[in-house]
Write a structure and sequence with these properties.
The protein is of the alpha/beta class. The protein is built from 14 helices and 16 strands. One of its GO terms (biological process) is oligosaccharide metabolic process.
Length: about 425
């Protein structure tokens, strides 16, 4: 596509946005919940595999687990249906309908069931001729009708994918769906896959515009059940942090995709690392695992109260990678409310635990400050640390050490709130 066409497209979108701005007041912190795709995919064979197929029973059971096993109270509130839920054809009125064998009671009954348990229901659509799994898509002429259908069913979140659609259709359709969802009068969190289909970066992706259309968006590839997949996502997000980090905030989030903790591809250390890095990224925490059989160790990681508090910090500032050592140790920092912050020390090594020594001064914390340090995974207060004090942490291979830092003494200076922006020369943590 030529530069002129791109700029004309951007102008058309910008003009359309004057009446589109999402302004739905939703997702002020990153959404939390459960999503079917990574773990259960498009398994529709309920005769051979009734326990694991995409059916109302699967979502009833996951809603029960969220409500009864301590997830809901921690903030995990969305039960999200992904692809392959619908019949292969729309009905005579052109309306999307759930597969009658796998969802015999319909989506409205499922939503009622979920709501009765203090939870919310998410659903999946695709802005194209077909969904990625080959089910009916939401082409432009169906956007308003499908938004109304979802609202009437009692849906609380929509993930709108982008298979089988062109760049021009996406540029029209994603803003149009925002407008259509607003027009229903029902609060529906809007998750877009638009940037992922446009390479995730400028000039094709305008994050200023995107933040006015969507509550969250997929930027990059689908996560798979492997450590290599997690690392590829981490690499892409932090390599491009100067573009991505300023785009995130209350009501509009970068989405690195689902948490795969509790499945088959990650070790214990790698599971702890995914949770910590997604938290630093202010990422949505959407688990995709079998909550009916999750191990105690995976559950403990996902239900870490301090971790969730950090992820849900009301300032909503996405963290950044601030150090990348030749020793394959990386350090990430996320500023939090009340002048607190979180640090993640991450090892890409595969040989042995590594003793990493640094100081808060080397990490550009303010001079003459004192911080109370709490280990996020252990839960204990480690002690107090002056900015100039050297300290060491032992980081396991593929693992993390994660700290929560609360200031106990700050240098005398005016307190003011500054939104973290793209740094010009090196990142400096900001007092808030």
């Amino acid at each position: 596509m030529g530069t002129m066409v791109l700029s004309e497209l951007a102008l058309a979108v910008a003009l359309a946005l004057r009446s589109v701005a999402l302004e739905n007041g939703l997702a002020r912190t990153p959404p939390m919940g459960w999503m079917s795709w990574e773990r259960f995919r498009c398994n529709v064979d309920c005769q051979a595999d009734p326990r694991n197929c995409i059916s109302e029973q699967l979502f009833f059971e996951m809603a029960d687990r969220l409500a009864e096993d301590g997830w809901r109270e921690l903030g995990y509130q969305y039960v999200n249906i992904d692809d392959c839920w619908s019949a292969k054809q729309r009905d005579a009125a052109g309306q999307l309908v759930p597969d009658p064998k796998r969802f015999p009671r319909g989506i409205k009954a499922l939503a009622d069931y979920v709501h009765a348990r203090g939870l919310k229901l998410g659903i999946y659509g695709d802005l194209g001729t077909h969904t990625c799994g080959g089910y009916p898509g939401t082409t432009l002429e169906y956007v308003k009708q499908d938004a109304q259908t979802f609202a009437e069913w009692g849906v609380d979140m929509l993930k709108l994918d982008g298979c089988y659609s062109s760049g021009e259709e996406q540029a029209k359709g994603y803003p149009e769906m925002a407008r259509a969802l607003n027009a229903t009068g029902r609060p529906i969190v809007y998750s877009c896959s638009w940037p992922a289909y446009q390479g995730g970066l400028p000039p094709k992706v305008n994050y200023t515009i995107l933040a006015e259309i969507c509550n969250l968006w997929r930027n990059y590839d689908d996560i798979q059940d492997s450590w290599d997949s997690v690392l590829s996502i981490v690499d892409w997000f932090f390599t491009n942090q100067d573009v991505l980090q300023p785009a995130a905030g209350p009501g509009h989030w970068n989405d690195p995709d689902m948490l795969i903790i509790g499945n088959f591809g990650l070790s214990y250390e790698q599971s702890r690392s995914q949770m910590a890095l997604w938290t630093v990224m202010a990422a949505p925490l959407l688990m995709s695992t079998d909550l009916r059989s999750i191990s105690p160790s995976a559950k403990e990681i996902l239900q870490n109260r301090l971790m969730i508090q950090i992820n849900q910090d009301p300032l909503g500032i996405q963290g950044r990678r601030i150090v990348k050592e030749k020793s394959h140790i990386e350090v990430f920092l996320r500023p939090l409310s009340q002048a607190a912050s979180t640090l993640v020390f991450f090892s890409r090594r595969t040989d042995m635990p590594f003793l990493y020594t640094t100081s808060l001064a080397k990490l550009h914390f303010p001079e003459d400050s004192v911080y109370e340090i709490q280990d996020v995974y252990v839960g204990k207060i480690i002690g107090r640390l002056k900015t100039g004090d050297n300290f060491s942490v032992v980081i396991n291979p593929s693992g993390v050490v994660m700290w929560y830092l609360r200031p106990t003494a700050l240098p005398v200076q005016p307190q003011h709130v500054v939104r973290q922006q793209v740094p010009s020369r090196g990142f400096r943590p900001i007092l808030l």
